[in-house]
Specification:
The complex is a heterodimer of chains A (about 475) and B (about 170).
Chain A lengths: L1 H14 L1 H10 L1 E3 L10 H20 L9 H10 L3 H28 L8 H24 L3 H14 L6 H9 L6 H33 L13 H15 E3 H26 L22 H12 L5 H22 L11 H23 L13 H4 L4 H12 L2 H4 L16 H4 L2 H10 L13 H12 L17
Antiparallel strand pairs in A: 1-2
Chain B lengths: L13 H34 L8 E6 L8 E7 L12 E8 L5 E5 L10 E3 L4 E3 L6 E3 L4 E3 L8 E2 L1 E4 L2 E5 L7
Antiparallel strand pairs in B: 1-11, 2-3, 3-4, 4-9, 5-6, 6-7, 7-8, 10-11
The chains are: A mainly alpha (about 475), B alpha+beta (about 170).
Chain lengths: ~475, ~170
């Protein structure tokens, strides 16, 4: 024991470690009292990131970043004894990091902790938020199944909408003229070296600023931020009512951080990683790529906006989001911090959360996507095994009508439900629609024989609330 | 964070100030050259996109294709990297129009790049992502796509049907 102590004294003497760390641990922080637990979200985000670093290193040891082999190495990792759990931890760790960095951003925004002197804390945090989004996108891609493959093309096509440099940007994402050997390596480097390197640097800067500017005190409506007097006032507050960061405040970070770890590990064991899709073979035509939950809302919004606004939304949506985050501490860097005096801040947070939750649910259903796997209508629904109605039902399936129109629970939901078309539409109306098409419906003029059309009309005309066939039971009242 | 106090600088003569200024500028200039020596080739390598030559790839014999039908064909990239695996392939929809004429459509939807499918009985291309529909000639029928489907040049050569490879079309 004495020996170890002597080694430590020598080590500390020649490195100055305790002289460096002790002020960090002891530095006074405001007593946040009933708001104390709101201050654990930043450190919890960091812990989620560290989970990603550790599990990511483990995954990388079993992964081959080659367009031709990555998919089979994912199968290898998933089948390895602990590989499934590690993959699950990395997957749920990513979700945890997204959720926690989102909540941390909301906390800082609502409490207006981004005001003087912490503007650069906010701006470095914005960089970390954007990098986290870049990490989850590139990470989902590295799974390199069919969805991963098509995600690259979709990303390239979206980048292609950027004026002037769009074409170059799209091919930069593909790492060449086509998706091939160089593509996955590019995303691997971005996900494993470039973005994490930047995150490490900016996290260090962010933490340095937290110590340099001090942790923000909970807002008080009677005390707006005045840059000229804030720092002396803050130091007086710490002298009067501060407490050492370690352990008075830090124990909550430890407890909450461990809860995050337990949740991630628990979900990884119980739920496990997402299933691998089909292989990344571009010749497999049956592909229906979908983004992960954190981008589903954005996918949904891009799908429901009017066609003319697409380029604007695709380019200006993310751009304005970024610009707003950057401008916030610069234009609102002083004054009132209390969220009760900034009621619109609650409105903005509510709108953002609503969009993510509501449009995320819409994105799960994806009503705009045709159901191209809809089976032909069963006889029980059609109500005939031969004749024009049966033939019409076949036309309804063969011509792709069913992919967008539902009949008795079968088919898509992009177009109107036609279960009761016979009640609501006349044959003339249906014919007009079939011939002229619409914004989201192709015209079938010249693409349907008159036999097919009259059979289709017979089938749709037979869709009634009260079935016309078979005839009513003798004992039932009309 | 430490209590170091920089040693008191000696009183400066005009000559000394000029010398220090020079040394500061020299260090910055030399340091920048050093950084550029490392950064420029690295960034150039990163930005150097793989250009592929455009070559004719055979997708089948002339007799393999029936007039009036549209089928899925696949061909290999012009110069695939050895580790590209299945991703070196590209698929297209090929239609035999008549005895000698073929049309090859890109599978990539002009909306956001999802793979369009040919519905033979409906005579339409449909995209599974946002329901974009294209007529048999590739023109937009409905939904969000802003442009017709892209086409590959096709030729019949030595009784073989060949497609001219091209970069992924970015809308």
């Amino acid at each position: 024991m004495q020996f170890i102590k002597r080694i430590w004294i020598w080590f500390d003497d020649v490195t100055g470690v305790s002289a460096m760390l002790k002020p960090l641990l002891d530095h006074p922080v405001p007593n946040a009292r009933k708001f104390s637990w709101f201050y654990v979200l930043g450190s919890a985000t960091l812990i989620a990131f560290l989970i990603q670093v550790v599990t990511g290193i483990a995954l990388a040891s079993g992964y081959v970043a080659s367009s031709g082999q990555a998919y089979s190495t994912l199968q290898f990792i998933t089948d390895a004894p602990i590989g499934r759990i590690i993959r699950g931890m990395h997957y749920f760790g990513a979700s945890a990091m997204i959720i926690l960095i989102g909540l941390h951003t909301i906390r800082v925004y609502l409490m207006a902790s981004y005001k003087y002197p912490r503007q650069m804390n906010w701006l470095s945090g914005v960089a970390l938020l954007l990098l986290t989004l870049a990490m989850v996108f590139t990470g989902q891609l590295l799974r390199w199944d069919q969805t991963g493959f098509w995600s690259v093309l979709i990303a390239a096509e979206q980048a292609g909408r950027v004026p002037l440099i769009g074409n170059w940007l799209g091919h930069f994402i593909l790492a060449g003229d086509t998706v091939g050997g160089a593509t996955l390596s590019r995303f691997f480097v971005a996900h494993v070296f470039f973005f994490p390197g930047l995150i490490f640097l900016i996290v260090a800067f962010h933490l340095y600023l937290v110590v340099h500017n001090g942790i923000s005190e909970p807002p008080n409506a009677s005390r707006p931020v005045e840059p000229k007097t804030y720092r002396p006032w803050y130091h007086a507050l710490l002298a009067r009512d501060g407490q050492p960061f370690w352990p008075d405040a830090a124990w909550r970070d430890v407890v909450f951080g461990v809860l995050v770890v337990l949740t991630v590990v628990g979900l990884a064991i119980i739920v496990g990683p997402p299933l691998l899709g089909k292989p990344p073979d571009p010749t497999i035509v049956e592909a229906t790529p979908r983004p992960e939950w954190y981008f589903l809302w954005y996918y949904a919004i891009l799908s429901i906006i009017p066609k003319w606004s697409e380029d604007l939304v695709m380019i200006w949506g993310p751009a304005l989001f970024g610009i707003a985050l950057i401008l916030l501490p610069l234009v609102a860097g002083k004054g009132q911090r209390s969220p009760l005096r900034r009621p619109w801040s609650f409105v903005i947070v509510a709108v953002v959360l609503f969009m993510i939750a509501y449009y995320g649910e819409v994105g799960k259903v994806a009503p705009w996507s045709p159901r191209m796997d809809a089976p032909p209508l069963p006889t029980a629904v059609v109500g005939a095994i031969s004749g024009p109605i049966a033939y019409g039902a076949q036309v309804f399936h063969d011509k792709g009508c069913e992919y967008c129109h539902k009949v008795s629970g079968y088919g898509g939901v992009r177009g109107p439900d036609l279960t009761y078309a016979g009640d609501t539409l006349t044959p003339a109306q249906i014919t007009t629609r079939i011939y002229s098409g619409g914004t989201n419906m192709p015209s079938y003029r010249g693409n349907m024989t008159s036999d097919q059309l009259s059979a289709l009309l017979a089938f749709l005309g037979s869709r009634h609330r009260q079935p016309v066939l078979p005839p009513p039971e003798p004992n039932s009242n009309p | 964070m430490s209590d170091h106090v920089p040693p008191e600088a000696a009183p400066q003569s005009g000559l000394e100030i000029g010398r220090r200024k020079f040394l500061v500028r020299l260090s910055i200039a030399v340091g920048s050259i050093g950084a550029a020596l490392v950064a420029v080739p690295s960034v150039a390598f990163l930005l150097g996109l793989r250009k592929s030559p455009r070559i004719w790839r055979t997708v089948g014999k002339l007799d393999d294709f029936t007039v009036g039908t549209t089928v899925n064909v696949s061909f290999e990239d012009p110069s695939p990297l050895p580790w590209a695996g299945v991703t070196a392939k590209t698929a297209a929809w090929l239609r035999r129009v008549d005895d000698r004429e073929f049309i090859a459509f890109s599978m990539i939807c002009t909306h956001l790049g999802c793979p369009v499918r040919w519905l033979a009985k409906a005579n339409l291309f449909m995209c599974p992502c946002h329901g974009g529909v294209f007529y048999a000639d590739g023109q937009v029928a409905s939904g969000p796509p802003p442009k017709p489907l892209n086409r590959y040049p096709v030729r019949v050569y030595n009784n073989e049907v060949q497609i001219l490879t091209m970069p992924v079309p970015i809308t």
